[in-house]
Specification:
Elements: H1 2-11, H2 17-24, H3 28-40, E1 62-70, H4 79-86, E2 91-96, E3 103-109, H5 112-123, E4 129-136, E5 142-143, E6 146-147
Antiparallel strand pairs: 1-3, 1-4, 2-3, 5-6
């Protein structure tokens, strides 16, 4: 039951307990209790709104993905380095990766210069950081399962001889 509730909330966190109960054929109080338990256990960590900033005239958000190579800390591995990185207010996400680099860091800033200054003045100087590679997001097509722009179909009729 909890997994079903989570799947519904993941698609749209605005659903009420009553709506979820109807969708899943459950009692409203059971849904409320399950959501409360999931929040207490920190399975549900928050409720966010996904925004397509490109649709605003005053889009002042630049998103960058930064590949970071680090030296793991003795006795603490990557966790301590990740903690130092995710404490910066610009950082939206930090992921431990396999492959050619250790972390993917996602940050947001008002300009590309602000992002570059963050990397040069805050991230790169950290003791454990060996190297960084910054990639700027130019356009989002899909994020967290939501398609931002529908592809326009050619609706012309086919003409054949």
């Amino acid at each position: 039951m909890k997994k079903q509730i989570l799947e519904v909330l993941e698609k749209n966190s605005k659903y009420t307990a009553e709506e979820i109960a109807v969708m899943l054929g459950l009692e409203t109080e059971d849904v409320r209790a399950a959501i409360g338990e999931l929040e207490d256990a920190q399975v549900i960590c928050g409720y966010n709104t996904l925004i397509n900033w490109d649709h605003l005239e005053e889009n002042d958000v630049v998103t960058a993905l930064i590949e970071v190579k680090v030296t793991p800390q003795r006795g603490e591995g990557f966790d301590k380095v990740a903690e130092r990185i995710y404490k910066f207010k610009e950082v939206k996400a930090v992921y431990l990766m396999s492959g050619g680099f250790d972390f993917t860091v996602i940050i947001e800033g008002k300009t590309m210069k602000q992002v570059a200054l963050f990397v040069g003045q805050k991230l790169a100087p950290l003791e454990a950081v060996l190297s960084t590679s910054t990639h700027f997001v130019l356009k989002k097509y899909k994020d967290y399962g939501v398609v931002f722009e529908n592809v326009k179909k050619d609706e012309r009729m086919i003409v054949s001889p």
